Amino acid sequence: MQTHQRPTTDDTEIRIYERLPKSLFMSLLCLMFAVGGIFILRDDSAGIALKIIGGWLNLMFFGLGGLFVLGSTLFNRIKRIPSLIIRNDCVCIHIPLKNKYDIILFKDVNSFSLIKPSMTKLISVNYKSAEMIKEFDRSSHIEQLLMTFNYRTINTLKSIPAENLTLSAKKICAILNSKLAR
Question: How far apart are CA 157 and CA 137, in angstroms?
């Protein structure tokens, strides 16, 4: 008699999600700044420059940013979309704007390291020399511009955002380097 088992994700796949409270707090903070923009727009004593810069730009930037963060957080939570998936052969990074995963193969990477430019935590992807050129060549023009900017500022083509995740950046980096060692 044959039995069918459901596929499981045992220890071959680690799913790491966004932290909901921090994302909701960031969107609430953005929306509070947008409300400040509304008050500036309604103030009759404010000059035209203040209304444009402090009102409209504030409202558009923080209002739309807060709504985007709130919408993407709720969408990812409802659909159970992880921010990172670590497998035995690769790490998959969720790109919210494309709703796709960027896949980084471990065979193309020398190491992962924790970096902290300004106030955000990132995990630097240190590619092998030949693979770095291939990765750059197969990217779109806009991705190449971003990679060039990354390389000039943090000395890496790609990095993994690790600030707002359910697992600490240090632990994620250790897991990724242990997968490389295998």
Answer: 12
Predicted model pTM: 0.78
Q: Rounded to whole angstroms, how far apart are CA atoms 55 and 120?
A: 28
Q: CA-to-CA distance for 32 and 36, rounded, in angstroms?
A: 6
* Length of the chain (residues): 182
Four-point Cα dihedral 4, 9, 11, 13, nearest 10: 140
Cβ atoms 107, 89 nearer than 8 A: yes
The answer to whether 18 and 166 have CB atoms below 8 angstroms apart is: yes
Dump pLDDT digits (tens) for 48-87. 888 888 889 989 999 999 999 899 889 999 999 999 999 9
Residues of the chain with pLDDT under 70: 1-11
- For residue 160, the SS3 value is strand
Integer CA distances (angstroms), 82 to 59, 73, 77, in order: 30, 11, 8
8 — phi, psi (to 5°)? -115, 170
Please give the backbone phi and psi of residue 155, each rounded to the nearest 5 degrees, phi first: 65, 35
